[in-house]
Amino acid sequence: MANLVLLLTCCNFYKKMQILRDPGSCMPLSFVSQWLNEISDQERFKIITYNSLNLVPLQENDFNLAAKKEYKEWIKNLTNEDSKKIHLLIQYDVDAYPERTKKLLQVNEKYGIPANIMIFHECHSREKLKKYNKLELIDYEIDYEYLKYLETKGFVIGYHFNGYERALFNIDLTSKVFIEDVQELRKHFDIKYFSPHGGVKDMQGKTNPHCVIIPPKIMKSIFWVHNGKSVKFAKTYSDGGITAKLGEYKPLKERSLIDFMKNMEPGKRYRILLHPQYYTDNYIFSEYMAQSAEWYYNLCTKYPPKV
Ligand SMILES: [Zn+2]
């Protein structure tokens, strides 16, 4: 009997530990907070948003050409003062756990660092789509009021396109989902930019970015800024798929944000894309990531998980 009680106590303790850690997280929020503090140094950095750039589509769907033209003009018009600073654009893709994005945004707000926040109109279960080809909408409770307030502070809200998935890979329905999403989001925000979510592959290996059909009605009022087509930067950083063990991503040891920051030069512009769901103070330390990259091990040693 005593053994059984002990066993149950151990199991409960283990379960509690699992529950206490934030699922899907792998990085310390304190690290990003510290980073935001560093880049709030206005002597060294100039924080920009997509609104700071003169992004005008030239003709139908010609985003890359428009982006190229904008970049050329941006370099040409750089003032002497601006050429002494590192220009940084921060993008947050809100794929899951919107409450974690809010926590991070509160740090951005504290340091006066506007970010570009890409949100879905509706979020669905990746697992259900992948395993059963079914669409199941899931909780995605974004604090619209807070985002609206941030918009007044220079933050930018954009559309994170997941329309090909939500149309169950039916290309003919994709454009309908696109326009409905944008129209709904525009009831709350000034949506002028979009970025496709990576997401689940169809039978041919295609994902949202391969299957973007922009409805002609809004072609001139929305700019494709990232993933598939892109605004131009000297270099970009993304933590996308940082927990993935295999696949198309760069090796983890080359994906340190600290190393990326070290190689920046004044007078150039850079984009840093983060997925806020990875960052909490109660994160799950990944043995695999620690074995793959020293920078990750060092980061977790400096900012250990708090329970
Ligand atoms: Zn995404």
Give short descriptive properties of this protein.
TIM Barrel; 307 residues; eight-stranded parallel β-sheet; two-stranded parallel ribbon; binds zinc ion; alpha/beta; globular; 11 helices
Task: Write a compact overview of the structure shown.
The chain is 37% helix and 14% strand. The relative contact order is 0.18.
Give your account of this protein's structure.
By secondary structure, the chain is of the alpha/beta class. It has one domain: TIM Barrel, CATH 3.20.20. The protein is 37% helix and 14% strand. It is built from eleven helices and ten strands. The chain has helices at residues 2-20, 29-39, 63-76, 98-111, 126-132, 144-152, 163-166, 171-186, 257-262, 287-292, 294-302, and strands at 27-28, 45-48, 86-94, 116-119, 156-161, 193-196, 223-224, 235-238, 269-274, 279-280. Strand 8, helix 9 and strand 9 form a beta-alpha-beta unit. The radius of gyration is 21 Å and the shape is globular. The chain starts with a helix and ends in a 5-residue tail after the last helix. The structure holds zinc ion. Zinc ion is lined by residues 93, 95, 160, 197-198.
